[in-house]
Design a protein that fits this description.
Blueprint (H helix, E strand, L loop, with lengths): L7 H18 L9 H10 L4 H10 L7 H23 L8 H17 L17 H28 L8 H22 L1 H19 L3 H17 L3 H14 L4 H18 L7 H20 L2 H15 L5 H32 L3 H19 L5 H6 L3 H14 L9 H6 L3 H51 L6 H13 L4 E9 L2 E9 L4 H12 L3 E10 L2 E8 L3 E10 L9 E7 L4 E9 L3 H20 L4 H13 L7 E9 L4 E7 L4 E5 L2 E5 L16 E5 L5 E5 L1 H4 L5 H8 L7 H15 L8 E10 L2
């Protein structure tokens, strides 16, 4: 037996079921114990046996029959004993039989001892013509109803407004409530039932605010139709009227319902009836409407929150925020590790190796040349070792020494100047090799330090982003749920994150909802264009859709390329990648020369650019790292690079040009030249690229050209004049036209690798 929590709410819940006991006892004319099924279900769910059994006994009182009360008492004792034995012997599997055995005996008591008047059944009269057979048939129905009640009541008590009911649970719960409604209509009368059903319909419509109100109206109409003959279509119209007006407030919903009630009353001739007949009809509509209007708003809000809580049960904001903070802390710690790595590499970059090498040259020279010189002591007294060190410093700087480099003080006293110079020059050969290795090690440390700094910055930014708790938009989520339902989109979970103006919406939908329809509802709700960013399949018919704010701009690209005549592979490489939802990168790399080697240089440069920028590493770190990697190569390698990072929200383009020809921005009839001011990558060990910022407007075109294109024109002025006459509406056509013009200038043969990369911005549709 499931243990039901013992608190004030459980006591309240018992008294909620009290009317249900009376209603079920009134389903038939002979007080048939349908309420026995409810008693069995409540005991099985762990509700108080004393209260539940007492309510069942009370349900026999309206019959005013001592024999019936004795039967009900015996049934109560039997069921209580059955569940008591089950609890005592719960370790044994056979214990589950005792409650059903007690139920069977209780129904047998009804069959043999309960008072009963024979029903007139024209259809089954020959088959169920005796009292005993009719009571046996009703007992079978009660046994089946008990099985339905166990599932339905358990679903209502433990799952309603907490999780989604299973199909069988939903059907059984609705069937149980339907029978209770039939009993209420028979026990209290049709007018009283109508009053209760109108109140339920109004409250449900105010809480749900969706088309499920129509289904609620249909269920409420069945008992009124069966008992009082009230047409089902009337309740359907009541549901339509309330559903259409409840969104404007409670008063419009009440007004629409009362209007329909009075219209039907007029055509039914109710206003012509006597007062004793007219009054119940009017009160059945007026009283529930008055109660609904006076119902405190916090009560309705609490009901609505229960319903919304059920819909968002899987999204725990507390857990999300805790995880975000934990991840943020770990990322910040990792960022600190890489900062320490950077500091360590910089600390290792000292001049101790160089100083030690110079001291070694001085000691070797003194030991081999000066130690056996008669004037050695004189030189020591005059401190000529300092002059020797100066000579070594000059030699290290020049690569060799000669007589004009000898300091005056040393020249005046030393008779072995040529031997000293010879010794120093011989040792300088080894010194230069040592210094080359030290410089390479230092360059490697600087490269790793720069990378550690870049990784530290990335991790720090991620840590700050993840540490920020998500903002809760509970009210917006409720309102959006209603908006989606009005559009015919059923969603079980909704989560809104982000800041005002840049929301991210996560919706769990049933069925493959069209992206355009979902985006339209979200756009209208947030008052900003929203697009479907990602759709994740959760099950066969359940999807998680993630919508984000649509950027103001979109981009179209055009590329035209041609390999140098006589070569199989081009040294030009281009790239167009998406950095995130709001930014993309375009890059053009022209490797040194043409052919396979130039192709490898260009492709390596582009691959590094793509990887670094995807990781959102700072541009300065990216370009300096690539430059150092190219300078490490023993062979002469360099590449001319064009890079642009374009923001689709603002149109801002951050452009870096390294050793590349002039680029262009075509804007309607105007033309801007984007100049280059640095040497190609891989020539100098240190690189200080300059980032130029340009704001692109709608229909502007950014144009990058390799030197194979620009060399075909006589000058930048000729290229400038040629670009004035091309159409910019189609970037691919623009790229093809520029390439064709350059090739024509070469006489039809490509004298170098030729590449044109065009990017056009346009307003998002």
């Amino acid at each position: 037996m499931t243990e039901f929590p013992k608190n004030g709410f459980s006591v309240f819940l018992h008294f909620v079921f009290l009317p249900a006991f009376f209603a079920l006892s009134c389903l038939g004319n002979n007080a048939e114990p349908f309420a026995l099924g409810l008693l069995f279900a409540l005991l099985d769910c762990g509700l108080s046996p004393i209260l539940s059994c007492s309510f069942y006994l009370f349900s026999s009182l309206p019959a005013f029959n001592l024999q019936l009360s004795l039967v009900f008492s015996a049934q109560t004792v039997l069921l209580a004993l059955g569940f008591l034995l089950k609890d005592k012997l719960q370790e044994k599997k056979e214990s589950v039989i005792f409650p059903f055995f007690a139920l069977a005996i209780s129904l047998a008591l009804f069959v043999f001892f309960a008072p009963f008047e024979l029903y007139s059944l024209p259809v089954f009269g020959s088959f169920l013509g005796s009292v005993l057979l009719q009571k046996a048939f009703i007992s079978v129905l009660i046994f089946l109803f008990t099985a339905i009640s166990v599932v339905g009541v358990r679903a209502l008590l433990f799952k309603l407004l907490k999780c989604r009911l299973g199909k069988d649970e939903l059907v059984f719960a609705l069937f149980f409530l339907l029978l209770v409604g039939l009993g209420v209509a028979r026990f209290l009368g049709v007018h009283a039932y109508l009053g209760i059903s109108f109140l339920v319909l109004l409250i449900y419509s105010a809480v749900a605010k969706d088309c499920s109100t129509l289904f609620c109206a249909f269920l409420l109409s069945l008992p009124a139709y069966v008992v009082g003959g009230v047409p089902i279509e009337r309740f359907f119209l009541y549901g339509v009227a309330v559903t259409a007006t409840v969104g404007f407030g409670r008063l419009p919903a009440v007004f629409s319902l009362l209007c329909l009630l009075f219209i039907y009353a007029y055509f039914d001739g109710v206003f012509l009836l006597a007062s004793n007949l007219l009054l119940p009809t009017l009160l059945s509509g007026l009283i529930p409407c008055l109660i609904f209007v006076l119902l405190p708003t916090p009560v309705l809000r609490a009901m609505e929150n229960k319903l919304v809580f059920y819909r968002e049960k899987h999204i725990s904001r507390v857990a999300i925020n805790r995880n975000r903070m934990a991840i943020g802390d770990r990322l910040f710690e990792l960022s600190g590790v890489f900062r320490e790595i950077q500091a360590t590499f910089f600390a290792l970059g000292t001049t101790e190796a160089e100083d030690s090498a110079k001291d070694f040259i001085c000691r070797q020279t003194v030991g081999k040349v000066c130690a056996n010189c008669p004037k050695y002591r004189t030189c020591l007294k005059q401190n000529q070792t300092l002059s020797l060190r100066k000579l070594v410093d000059v030699g290290c700087a020049k690569g060799k020494t000669n007589l004009i480099d000898v300091p005056v003080g040393l020249a005046n006293v030393c008779d072995r100047q040529s031997d000293i110079l010879s010794s120093i020059n011989r040792l300088l050969v080894d010194y230069q090799k040592c210094m080359l290795e030290a410089e390479n090690a230092q360059a490697g440390r600087a490269l790793l330090a720069g990378q550690a700094q870049g990784v530290s910055e990335i991790l720090k930014n991620l840590a700050l982003d993840q540490s920020e708790p998500i903002t809760i938009y509970s009210q917006k989520e409720k309102e959006l749920t209603v908006a989606l339902l009005r559009a015919g989109i059923v969603s079980s979970e909704i989560l809104i994150t982000g800041e005002d103006g840049d929301f991210i919406l996560s919706v769990v939908t049933y069925g493959m909802v069209k992206a355009k329809k979902l985006g339209a509802v979200a756009s209208a709700f947030f008052k900003t264009p929203m697009i479907l960013s990602e759709r994740i399949s959760l099950s066969r018919d359940k999807y998680c859709c993630i919508l984000k704010r649509r950027p103001n701009y979109d981009a179209a690209f055009g590329v035209a390329a041609l390999t140098k005549y006589g070569e199989e592979k081009s040294g030009d490489t281009h790239s167009v990648i998406k950095i995130d939802e709001r930014k993309f990168m375009v890059a053009l790399s022209d490797g040194m020369g043409s052919g396979e080697y130039a192709k490898r240089i260009s492709e390596s440069t582009i691959s590094l650019l793509e990887s670094f920028y995807r990781a959102k590493m700072p541009s300065k770190t990216v370009l300096s790292t690539i430059n150092k990697l190219l300078t490490f190569n023993k062979e002469e390698t360099f590449a001319c690079v064009d890079v642009a990072i374009v923001d689709l929200d603002t149109g801002r383009a951050d452009i870096v040009k390294i050793g590349s020809p002039s680029g262009f921005i075509l804007s309607g009839t105007s033309l801007k030249i984007v100049e280059n001011a640095t040497l190609p990558l891989g020539i100098l060990e240190s690189l200080h690229p300059v980032t130029a910022t340009h704001v692109l407007e709608e229909d502007d075109v950014l144009l990058f050209l390799s030197d194979g294109i620009t060399s075909a024109f006589g000058s930048t002025s000729d290229l400038y004049d040629s670009l004035k006459n091309v159409s910019v509406s189609n970037p691919q056509q623009l790229a093809d036209d520029v390439l064709a013009t350059a090739l024509s200038a070469y006489g039809g043969k490509a004298m170098d690798d030729m590449t044109v990369l065009a990017v056009r911005l346009f307003k998002s549709a």
